[in-house]
Structures are given as structure tokens and as C-alpha cells.
């Protein structure tokens, strides 16, 4: 059965149920997404101030069979926040639920509402000398509810895990409109099925996260960063193993980058100072956070010396100051912006078993070469087996000239990833962009379990219709 | 609709489907559990050798509406492996699926079958210089499938997490008899709902785990252990915070113990050498695993000096040898055996927010004192907010003389835990022992979501009937 639109009658009904402050103009910012692939639609934008108001919206939508699209910071890259066709939904923005409900430094715990911006959570943790380690490029506008709904990743997963690993409890409104009060501050709780992890990563299709209990960490006593030129992706992998032998969990980021990324930065962001005289083919950024009694420069120096003796690395720089650490990180953090300015034909957020990364890079390059003389910018979270494998037109040519190859490129890359036991959605989620990929590559038994769970918890299919799973009425 | 028994006709049918080697005698060992509370029943015991044979059993049971009780090492403490009433089920033992399917030291990954014994997994990891950190007292007989099905905890959760945090993927047979192939070796995979974590901790009620991809860790360069006498539970908590400030994630265990535990050991295991001349009221065992360049004795010494100056601790011993480390750990590891020999009236596996532990201990003691002059042995994983809070008869009296108080004691302790935002099942699971507790204390919206998920994935309710959730036909 198809959903009904959020039409004037339904909107008038919502106005009876919610205070005027809960309504927002249907502005373009709610209907656009970062890559400009789709334009969304909405009958009404509501921004509830409390979990009870969220429950009121969902209950009304359920009764009227109107779709609900939850909306965090709008920074998702797979269209999970954008419904571009079908009946106009309610767009439910968490922007007014930004409170930090409690901080418990002794427990390394913080309780926040879903609309809190990631960077504000970082700052609140820092104020009590703690660390909330989840961090992504969009941290200045992404909201924690969206980070959890999509199980966001980022550069610190190697040490601290994905968003799901940093969450102890949730408050959420289920598709029935009922509120699940699951904000416990417990490290161990084996009382029943893991509804928390089912909600995390379900991208708003099983309910709306309204608040979360987050794990904090002690801040490392000292931090250090190095940029190291590696002889090959295989050497990078061997360097990672040595880094963990030397430093254990202290390795908080291990990012692989390619010369193409530096060339794009030189071309599109000429004011950015690149820390290399000659651009290396492959290099890594290593970030460490150490316990008391260890010196980051000495530790990274010992690691470099060891790796150099083993023939893995040819050159390297260890940051001598916090300003230099920032400079090294700026290289990494600007690579997506350089990509955006060049304009990719097709971008892929893939993972493979860590040991298969070098082979994937060799085979991927062959697969792409067979389709044309494209440029490849391959970079990402080597320590997690997660690469951003993005394909660009030859130098001097436009993306538009090659856009008809997009599907063939994507299919070739995803087929290879699937053959190698990988995932075509490593950290960005499925959204609406990858629904077909999930149908093609997903385990059929898991897919049928997912559909059964969706039907059981959201029998009217109102929650974020068409995201993750195809709308059954389509 | 009630289930059918595994009767001679059904058993004859299974004999047509499976090789003779898959059948086991219905021996008492399959029907007993460690605390001797229940005796189980089974129409037939099958021990398949492959996932396809497991699927054959489940498919047949589904068609015939016969219950299936998955069986690992039989070490669970909440009766999840024991069906003592209702129609006789198939007992499905994973004991023949013990293979280690692959080890990938460079990826810190191991793929094992569900019947592998935890201690054998430890040994296999050690052979490639890696650590599988999950460890519990029953490690010599517990099987990893059961550890995952119950989301086992243990002494290293503080640093490495529960069983679910150590699992990257699963192979499982769902209640339909279909096989979910989810053994990916990926650190990041956001392709759809988190079926893995839904299966983990569902105690065999949503399917049978047949294999798992496990996370390994680098072995710490050096390890150290201290026993430290703390002035109070509050001081123990402050010591934990200081330990993490000094040592970061290197603190791998932080166990609180009480004099009662030592008195029980002196009484029941007189050959065990206790490392204290005068028995302290409260003390902790701290275990650390350090990166290169740090000395465990020096680090623990600095921590002790700091805590002593702050007035938190009065005495302490730092292990000077591996033999002494083992001796310190033996105290901790024998406490459950001492308890068993004394004989508890009621045992409680509870968690509260870490910061609430001292208050819980004060209020718990008052609650128990109001019920009688009982002895309390309170000990456990302070760093996880998880205490084993066990109640014993007064000295010289038998458990039997007080067994009629068991329900009142349990109710009083669990009511208090619930009031304090805690969990009445921290690490042992729900099984059949705590079904009523879950109904009493569980969030009703979560409970109804759980029932909907169970009905969606196991519409005939054949999987581990009556565990976690009451059988709908009851």
C-alpha cells in the first residue's frame, strides 16, 4: 500500500498537536545533499524540541500512513536524508534537540540529544579533560543522531571503533510512536536482544534516535603525527603491523594516500602548503596518542628507523610541533575537497579484508584501465581496510564528458570488491544510493531477515521510506 | 500453538537425514548445569559436523515444529542450555564443529567454528603472537559459539570489550533453516542492519551461530599485576580513574574484592596461599599490558605512590615475577569456587553506572541486613560497573535453612539495581532463570520490539523455546 502525502489536512492536524515553534519553512537546505545528486521533497518540516514531540509526530504519521524522513546535519553522502520521489513526507529535523543531558567524567560517559553537533560534543568532552573520539570531515555540521543512524566511521576507527562502538545506550521513537527509554550508562547489560545496535546503522528506517549515551575516553598524555613515504601499499601494511607491535592501541589513525591526491590539492587549493618537495607515490599519515612516560617523537622515530631498516619506507617527517601536526592533518582532511573541485565520475566507499588491500589496488587499477584512461584517487583508512576509491576524468577533460561511464565503473569496482569478500558500503551507509547494490551483493538470507525485521517493527513502512530497503509498495 | 516433542518418528526421520556419527547418547552431561538448579530433557542429542548438517536439523525441526536447544560448553549460569519442561527438544551440540578455519595475523583476525573451546582459541592466537582477549573462569570448557550467543564478559572487558566487541562476522543458521553467510573479515561494513549484533546475545533464540570471525590483538610488550588495598569502594573508583590517567587503555583488568571472599577461600581452599597477612576489607587486582618502552613494575609503582599520597590506598604488592602474577590472579579466579563450596542462597550478576557502585554497595548492604544476618560476598569487574553480589547464610548455618528467603533477597537486590539505573543481567544473560526479571524490569517498548523480532524471525518459536522470552504458547 502506498503512503499518503503530508498534505494540507495532515499538516493542519500537526499544527493542532505541536507548538508553532516546532515548524520550519520547507527551505532548500533541507532538500539538498552534499554531492548535489538529488533534490528532495517534503510536505512539511518539523523540528520537535522533546522526545515526546517526536513521538507525537511519528504517532500522527503512523495513523495517517505518511512517510517520515529523519534529518540530522544533512551531511550524509548516500541520500539517506533525501526522498526525491513518491508521496511528500514529513521531514523531521532534530536541530532543536541539542542538549547535553549529562556528563560523567568519572564514568567516561556523556548523555546527549540527537541534534547535538559532533564538534560541540568534542568540545564538551574536552572541557572535562575527556575525548569523544568519533571524528569525520563534516564534524562542524553533522549531528550525533545522524552519526549513529549511519554508524559513522572516520579516521579514529582503528583505535576507538565506529559510532556503534562508542554508544552505550539510546532513547528512540519506534515506528509505532512509542518511546524506547534505553539511555542506561552501563558497560555491561545482557538483558535481552541488542536493540541498540539494530537501531544504529538502520539509517532511520526502524525509528528515530532522539538521544544517546556515549563513551568517552581519557585524553592521551601526549600525541604525535608522522607522514611517511612507503614503498608500496604492501609496505604500508607491513608498517602498520610494525606500528602496532611498537605502540599497541596507541596508533589512533593510519591513513594511506596517493600522489594523485596531492596533485589534486596542488591544482585546486594552491595556497595549501604541501609538506613534500617531490610528490611521493604512496605515503601514510600515522597519528599516535601515548600514555605517560612515552615520547611521541622518539616512539615514531624508533618506528621509522625499524621500518627503514626493513626496506619498507624511504622518507618521513615527524611533526615537531602542534602546528606541524595540524599541517600534516590538513593534507589528509583537504583531500575530499580537492576531489570535489576536480569532480569525480564515480566515488566508492569500499572495504576489503586488510590483508587484501594491496591486491585490491592492483586489480582495481587494471579494471579501471580497461574502461578508459581515468585518474584514480585512492586514499583512506588503511588500518580499517576502508578505501575511498574515486575515479576522475583524464586531465583537462570534464566529468560530464564521461558521466555515461559511471554505471560501468561503479559496477566493475563493486564486483571486484564483492569477489574479494569486501563491502560496497564501508562507512557511509546504504541510504538510497546503494539500495540496488545491497540487493545485488547482500547475502540473500540476511536480506530476507532485514525485510522481516523491517515489516515487524514498521508494518506501515513509514520510516524513511525507500532507504536501505526498497519500499515494498514500489 | 505448542511444540511437538522430538519423538521416535522424528528421531527416525533425522537418522535418514544425517550420518550416524552425528548422533550422541542423551547423557546426563547434556542435561545438567553448573549450579545444579535444573535438570534438562532432550528427545535426541545431535552433534552436526558442518553448517549444512546444522541447517538440515533446523529445517527438519521447523517442518515438524520441534524445539531446538543449541548447546555449547554447557557452562552458562542462567539455564539457557537447559529445557526442563515442555515437549522434549532436539539438543543441538556444536562439539564437533571445532575447526579454526583461518588465522590472519596481519589482519588480527581468526575465523573459528562455534564449537571451538575458548582456551584453544587463546592458544591458537598465542601461536601467531596474538591475543584473543575474551577470558572467563570456564575457558577450559566454554565454546565460542556459546560465548557469542550469550555475549560473555569476563575480566578483560574494561580494555577489550564484551564478546560482541570482539566479533567481526558470523555464520549462522536462522530458524527457517537457511544459512546466513556473514563471515566477512571487515573492520567496517555498513551494508544493512546489524544482524550480527542481533544474533549475539540472543542466546540461541534467533538461530544457531556456527562460525565466527574474531578480532585478535597484538600482545602487549610487557604485563604486570598488582594487589592494592583500598580504603573504600569509593577509593577504588578514584584509583581506577587515576590508573587510566596514568596508563590509558593499558589497564586490562580492575577487579574489586572483599574480605569475605578471602575468608571463604581460607575456609574452603586452605591450601591456597593468600598474599595478605591481615585480611583487608576491600582490595583490587589491577592488571596492565604495556607498550614497548614502559616498565610495568615502575608504572604500577608510580600509580601506587600517587594514590597513596592522595589517601586512597593503604598497602599494596606489585608482582615481581610471572609466578607471582599467577598467584595474585589465583586469588581472584578461585573466589567463585570458594563461593560454590560455601553455597550461596542467591547470586546476582548486576551492573550499575560505574559512578554509582559505592552507593550501591552501601544501599545493598542495608537492604540485605533488613532481611537477615547474611554474609555478602561482593566482588567483580569494577571497571565495568559489574558486580557479583552474592548472599550466603550466616557462618555455621546451611544454605537450606535459608532457601525460602531466596526470592525476597533476589527481589530486593534487583529492585535496588533497577532503581539505580542498572541491569539485573550484566554478563551472564537471561536464559530461563531471568525471564521473569526481564518482564518485570525490562523497558516495555523494548520488550515488545523483541517479541516482534522473535515472531518475525522464528514464527514457529522453535529456537531455544522459553529462553529470554516466555514461550508465547505458555
TrEMBL record, chains A, B:
<protein>
    <submittedName>
        <fullName>Putative FAD-linked oxidoreductase</fullName>
        <ecNumber>1.-.-.-</ecNumber>
    </submittedName>
</protein>
<dbReference type="GO" id="GO:0071949">
    <property type="term" value="F:FAD binding"/>
</dbReference>
<dbReference type="InterPro" id="IPR004113">
    <property type="entry name" value="FAD-bd_oxidored_4_C"/>
</dbReference>
<dbReference type="InterPro" id="IPR016167">
    <property type="entry name" value="FAD-bd_PCMH_sub1"/>
</dbReference>
<keyword id="KW-0285">Flavoprotein</keyword>
<keyword id="KW-0274">FAD</keyword>
<dbReference type="GO" id="GO:0022904">
    <property type="term" value="P:respiratory electron transport chain"/>
</dbReference>
<dbReference type="GO" id="GO:0016491">
    <property type="term" value="F:oxidoreductase activity"/>
</dbReference>
<dbReference type="InterPro" id="IPR016164">
    <property type="entry name" value="FAD-linked_Oxase-like_C"/>
</dbReference>
<dbReference type="Pfam" id="PF02913">
    <property type="entry name" value="FAD-oxidase_C"/>
</dbReference>
<keyword id="KW-0560">Oxidoreductase</keyword>
<comment type="similarity">
    <text>Belongs to the FAD-binding oxidoreductase/transferase type 4 family.</text>
</comment>
<dbReference type="InterPro" id="IPR036318">
    <property type="entry name" value="FAD-bd_PCMH-like_sf"/>
</dbReference>
<dbReference type="InterPro" id="IPR016171">
    <property type="entry name" value="Vanillyl_alc_oxidase_C-sub2"/>
</dbReference>
<dbReference type="InterPro" id="IPR006094">
    <property type="entry name" value="Oxid_FAD_bind_N"/>
</dbReference>
<dbReference type="InterPro" id="IPR016169">
    <property type="entry name" value="FAD-bd_PCMH_sub2"/>
</dbReference>
<feature type="domain" description="FAD-binding PCMH-type">
    <location>
        <begin position="38"/>
        <end position="219"/>
    </location>
</feature>
<dbReference type="InterPro" id="IPR051264">
    <property type="entry name" value="FAD-oxidored/transferase_4"/>
</dbReference>
<dbReference type="InterPro" id="IPR016166">
    <property type="entry name" value="FAD-bd_PCMH"/>
</dbReference>
<dbReference type="Pfam" id="PF01565">
    <property type="entry name" value="FAD_binding_4"/>
</dbReference>
Amino acid at each position: 500500500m502506498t503512503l499518503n502525502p503530508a498534505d494540507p489536512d495532515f499538516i493542519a492536524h500537526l499544527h493542532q498537536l505541536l507548538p508553532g515553534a516546532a515548524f520550519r519553512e520547507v527551505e532548500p537546505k533541507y532538500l539538498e545533499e552534499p554531492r548535489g545528486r538529488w533534490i528532495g521533497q517534503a510536505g512539511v518540516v518539523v523540528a520537535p524540541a522533546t522526545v515526546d514531540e517526536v513521538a507525537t509526530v511519528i504517532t500522527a504519521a503512523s495513523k495517517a500512513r505518511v512517510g517520515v524522513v529523519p534529518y540530522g546535519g544533512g551531511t550524509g553522502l548516500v541520500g539517506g536524508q533525501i526522498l526525491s520521489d513518491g508521496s511528500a513526507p514529513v521531514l523531521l529535523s532534530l536541530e532543536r534537540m541539542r542538549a547535553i543531558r549529562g556528563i560523567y567524567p568519572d564514568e567516561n560517559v556523556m548523555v546527549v540529544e540527537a541534534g547535538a553537533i559532533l564538534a560541540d560534543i568534542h568540545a564538551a568532552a574536552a572541557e572535562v579533560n575527556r575525548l569523544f573520539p568519533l571524528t569525520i570531515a563534516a564534524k562542524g555540521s553533522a549531528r550525533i543522531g545522524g552519526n549513529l543512524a549511519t554508524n559513522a566511521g572516520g579516521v579514529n576507527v582503528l583505535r576507538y571503533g565506529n559510532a556503534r562502538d562508542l554508544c552505550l545506550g539510546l532513547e528512540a521513537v519506534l515506528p509505532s510512536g512509542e518511546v524506547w527509554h534505553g539511555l542506561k550508562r552501563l558497560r555491561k547489560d545482557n538483558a535481552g536482544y541488542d536493540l541498540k545496535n539494530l537501531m544504529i546503522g538502520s539509517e532511520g528506517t526502524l525509528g528515530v534516535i532522539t538521544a544517546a549515551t556515549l563513551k568517552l575516553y581519557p585524553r592521551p598524555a601526549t600525541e604525535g603525527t608522522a607522514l611517511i613515504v612507503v614503498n608500496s601499499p604492501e609496505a604500508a601494511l607491513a608498517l602498520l603491523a610494525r606500528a602496532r607491535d611498537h605502540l599497541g592501541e596507541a596508533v589512533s589513525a593510519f591513513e594511506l594516500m596517493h600522489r594523485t591526491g596531492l596533485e589534486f590539492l596542488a591544482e585546486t587549493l594552491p595556497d595549501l602548503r604541501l609538506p613534500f618537495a617531490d610528490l611521493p607515490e604512496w605515503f601514510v599519515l600515522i597519528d599516535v596518542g601515548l600514555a605517560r612516560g612515552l615520547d611521541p617523537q622518539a616512539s615514531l622515530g624508533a618506528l621509522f628507523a625499524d621500518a627503514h631498516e626493513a626496506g619498507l619506507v624511504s622518507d618521513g617527517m615527524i611533526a615537531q610541533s602542534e602546528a606541524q601536526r595540524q599541517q600534516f592533518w590538513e593534507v589528509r582532511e583537504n583531500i575530499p575537497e580537492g576531489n570535489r573541485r576536480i569532480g569525480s565520475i564515480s566515488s566508492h566507499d569500499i572495504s576489503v579484508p586488510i590483508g587484501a588491500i594491496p591486491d585490491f589496488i592492483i586489480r582495481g587499477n587494471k579494471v579501471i584501465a580497461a574502461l578508459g584512461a581515468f585518474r584514480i584517487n585512492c586514499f583512506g583508512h588503511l588500518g580499517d581496510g576502508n578505501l575511498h576509491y574515486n575515479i576522475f576524468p583524464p586531465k583537462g577533460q570534464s566529468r560530464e564528458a564521461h558521466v555515461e561511464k559511471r554505471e560501468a565503473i561503479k559496477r566493475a569496482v563493486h564486483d571486484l570488491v564483492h569477489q574479494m569478500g569486501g563491502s560496497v558500503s564501508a562507512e557511509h551507509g546504504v541510504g538510497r544510493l546503494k539500495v540496488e547494490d545491497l540487493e545485488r551483493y547482500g547475502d540473500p538470507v540476511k536480506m530476507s531477515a532485514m525485510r522481516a525485521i523491517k515489516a515487524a517493527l514498521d508494518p506501515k513502512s513509514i520510516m524513511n521510506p525507500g532507504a536501505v530497503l526498497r519500499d515494498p509498495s514500489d
